[in-house]
Amino acid sequence: MLQYFYMEEIFDVLDSHGGFTGQTATRSICHSQGLWHRAIVVFIISTDGKKVLLQKRSQDKRLWPGLWDVAVGGHVDAGEFSYQAAIREAKEELGLDLQPQALIHIGSSISENIDNNIINRHFNDYFVTHLDLDPTKVILQSKEVAEVKWVSVPEFEAFLKGNTVSVTNKPVCWDYYRHYLQSQV
What pTM did the predictor assign? Predict the structure, then answer.
């Protein structure tokens, strides 16, 4: 009889300045105790710069279930660099094979989200990649992602403006997206 075991993610624990403490902890420990750890975001923009890809989070997610979010996001595993996590998460969530040279690192920030007994303290690294894809051909990780869609840059701006009902509460993250898009005009 085959048995499947869930291996919980393990993260490097950071100090309040982003330095390595030499400790690791599981995802559940980090989130229940509010331990600082790394996360990544990958913004996917069409090669002509006119559209952005959004993902709708699965209803199974503990934070922001069913809300629209960045194309790719996730945690950095222990011993992993942020760009490696970006590549891994793009493969896991959307079935995309990204190369390191396709990722543009556009900045970093810290964030704290406290919701549903989760204390999520991140040092975030933001990446952009430019590519064209057919959303109907993307291989979604159903436990994480319900759907993806392209929206035009003006639609994206309108979508975010005052929309607190269907979009994740990540103001700094969205600001990085906007700032990058504005820098490309």
Answer: 0.91
